[in-house]
Every structure is written in C-alpha cells, then in structure tokens.
Design brief:
The protein is α+β, with helices and mostly antiparallel strands. The protein contains eight helices and 16 strands. A hairpin with a 5-residue loop joins β6 and β7. α4 crosses α8. The N and C termini lie far apart (about 45 Å). The relative contact order is 0.22.
C-alpha cells in the first residue's frame, strides 16, 4: 500500500528531494501544558484565509512535538537491545569501539540524550544531533509550530495547584504552606493540525518515525500526570518537495468548518467534523502545492496500511525487525559519512 520504491535505498549525504509527509490532527485527551516562562504559548493570527478576523490560538512549538516522540523511539531502542541503558561515562571509564563509538560492557553503543549522542542509532540519524566541536547532524524530520484549531478562550482553563503534606492538608505544625500556584492548561479535545516532513530517509527509518508518532501519548510539561494526546494520521504524501504549512492548514480547516456553521465559539470543535474537514482540505492543498506527488495515501487505503503496520509493531518480533532494519540503515550512514576516517 505504501510505495516503498519512492524511498532512498540508503540515506544520502546530500538532499535528493525525497519528501515523505505525515498529515496529522493532534487531539488532547486530558489537560495539557505547553508553556514557556510559566505561561501557555499563544499567537495572534487570522482565524482563516477567508475568515479574516484575528484570533488568539494556543501554539505547540516544534520541540514540544518532536522531543516526546524521540524519547519514545529511544525507549524502544533500549528495550530491544539496540542501544545501552547506561549513561555516558566519564574519565577513565570511557571505552570506545573501533569506530570511536562509546560502548558499555555488553558492547552496546551508549547514546545519552543531550549529553553524548552515539551518532549512529536511528534517533541520531533521523532526528539529528549536535555535540559542539565533536560534530553535528541535521535533522531529517522537519516539524513546525502547531496552532490550535479553536480560539484560546475556549481552549484553555486555569487551575489552582497545591502540594499537600502527607496528612492530606496544606498545613504542618500550625503553618500553612505557600505551595499553591495557578496555571493555565489546554483543555481536552483541543485540536492541533500538523504536518511532519521526513526528508531523504530509507523506508525503515521513515517507519521508525511513523511508529514514534503513533506510540507517543504524552506531550508537554508534567507528562507523568497529564498531557495525554492522540495523533490521528489522516494522510501520507510522498513528493519531491515540502507541502503546506501548519498555520495555513489550520486556517483552511477553520474556513471549511465556519462556512458550514460547524464552529461554536463557546464549544469544542467536534472531532469527526474536524477529521472530515482536514481530509478534504488536505486533498485540496496537496493539489494546490507546486510539488510532484508520487503518492497520496488516504481514506480506506491509509486505514488498511495503518492497521497492518500496527499489527506488525504490536508483535515483539515485528518491532524487533523494524528497529533492526532502521539500525542497519543508520549505522551504514554513520560508517559512510560520519565515522572519522584515516586512523590505521
């Protein structure tokens, strides 16, 4: 169902114009927190392309999207024995293999996120890394700020948070704690249209990224207590260039719903209506974009593909096979273009 011949046989050292796009509708399933400097991130933009009034929307910055997805992928790589569970060692404890990659006692590469990347695992090659003077690799997974489909006023709610003592009260020895705070949260069923672009990866590494998106369920701050989210994949587009932006996609969906009187300023937007609108709008926008489309996977074909893919990855053997293929492709790229040559 997915045109696998579109993808590169190996990750190329220079761009070759193979763009695979995941078109999503991200839906919050609980109260989420997307903030910088203690406040929800917002943007004042036009409601739609045709609906020209200004609207304040909640924004979900790039790292709020990609970081949880990366961490899920890294978790699976550790679970199935492709990278080490140990942190990066220091001083005399550092031990590398013949390629200069830090390894643990079992010979597994040590990849410590934001501390010391191994530069060879699927996460490093797909999402990139930067290690100061030790080198960097540009991310081949592109994402941009996502904007809430509904307005800020209907999409957020303020909560008073407290931290009680073990007795369940806010006082101890006659003194009342000051650990009380008020925080704005994103409401459940807030929708964020988004496009993730994967450039010049092999089919195995593309499926690695897709699996991360489908499996990630928690986004934003305080992710052990809240922030659950469902990523509805409504299309996969294979093309020779990038397609529409998140903001334009959101505005066109808003226009589509507003023209059909499906937006109530005081109520959340119905998921089914938004999904149907997103599918119709995505089809129109793909045709409007100045790119050559090799495949637009949508509708029943997409649903069948995702069902088959999910069946495969729910099986441990299938998941191991996927990660093994992705690891093989990323290690080949490391050996060809990243590993330091010339040492005899």
């Amino acid at each position: 169902m997915l045109n696998t011949t579109f993808f590169a046989a190996s990750v190329p050292p220079r761009p070759t114009g193979r763009y695979a796009h995941l078109i999503l509708l991200r839906e919050t399933d609980s109260y989420a927190l997307f903030q910088t400097d203690g406040e929800l991130n917002t943007a004042r933009v036009h409601a739609g392309v045709g609906q020209s009034e200004l609207l304040t929307r909640i924004t979900m910055f790039k790292r709020k999207q990609t970081t949880p997805e990366r961490l899920i992928g890294r978790e699976l790589l550790r679970r199935y024995g492709f990278i080490s569970t140990e942190p990066a060692p220091e001083g005399k404890e550092r031990k590398g293999d013949e390629r200069g990659v830090l390894i643990d006692g079992a010979g597994l590469p040590i990849c410590d996120y934001n501390v010391e990347f191994c530069k060879q695992c699927p996460d490093c090659i797909a999402y990139g890394f930067a290690i100061g003077d030790a080198g960097s690799e540009k991310s081949k997974v592109y994402s941009d700020t996502a904007y809430s489909l509904s307005a800020f006023d209907v999409s957020h709610e303020a909560f008073t948070l407290n931290a009680p003592y073990e007795g369940g009260t806010m006082s101890r020895k006659g003194e009342v704690t000051s650990r009380i705070n008020e925080q704005d949260h994103v409401r459940p069923q807030t929708l964020f249209p988004a496009v993730i672009t994967v450039r010049d990866l092999t089919v195995s590494l593309f499926l690695y990224v897709l699996n991360n998106v489908l499996r990630t369920r928690r986004y934003g701050a305080q992710t052990t207590r809240t922030g659950t989210m469902t990523n509805h994949v409504i299309g996969i587009v294979l093309a020779d260039g990038e397609i529409f932006s998140n903001l334009h996609f959101t505005q066109r969906i808003y226009d589509h719903l507003a023209e059909r009187s499906m937006i109530d300023p005081a109520q959340p937007i119905a998921l089914d209506a938004a999904l149907n609108a997103a599918r119709e709008v995505a089809t129109i926008l793909v045709k409007e974009d100045q790119v050559a489309v090799s495949q637009h996977l949508q509708g029943t074909t997409l649903a069948n593909f995702l069902t088959d893919f999910s069946t495969r990855t729910r099986d441990e053997a299938g998941m191991h096979e996927l990660l093994q293929a992705a690891t093989r492709d990323s290690a080949a790229y490391h050996s060809a273009y990243i590993q330091k040559k010339g040492k005899k």
